[in-house]
Specification:
CATH topology: Alpha-Beta Plaits
Number of domains: 1
Order of helices and strands: EHHEHHEHHEH
Number of strands: 4
CATH class: Alpha Beta
Largest sheet: 4 strands, antiparallel
Number of helices: 7
Strand order of the largest sheet: 2-3-1-4
CATH superfamily: Nucleoside diphosphate kinase-like domain
Amino acid sequence: MAEEVERTFIMLKPSCVRRGFVGEVISRFERKGLRILQMKVLKMSREKAEELYKVHYGKPFYENLINTIADKTVVVMVLEGRKAISVVRKLIGATDPADADPGTIRGDLAIELTDNLIHASDSPESYEREHKIFFEESELNTF
């Protein structure tokens, strides 16, 4: 029996956009077989940044994390595929790019810990909370 298809939320951070890696990152997801259900390019409001990262509120790096993305251009998307959450986490690599394996997005393209190019949901619960910050359910109808 085939395993259930799942969805995950991705945000390409300002450094990814600024450095021109959006196409490369998206192509890695597509080559793996993940499907883009919806994608938006937007200027990240401070309010949405705080909502996205509220799980880190009060931690020493929180304010720097918010300042890294607030009021800057990001790309947000919902991807779908078999075991999408764990597949994406493997593709992007360790949170700290210095620890990320070569061949991963962060291992190949990032160096900074706070601005590590990309954010991805780490669980089904995170996906459910995070994607609703940026997308209405009606936008995610399959095609």
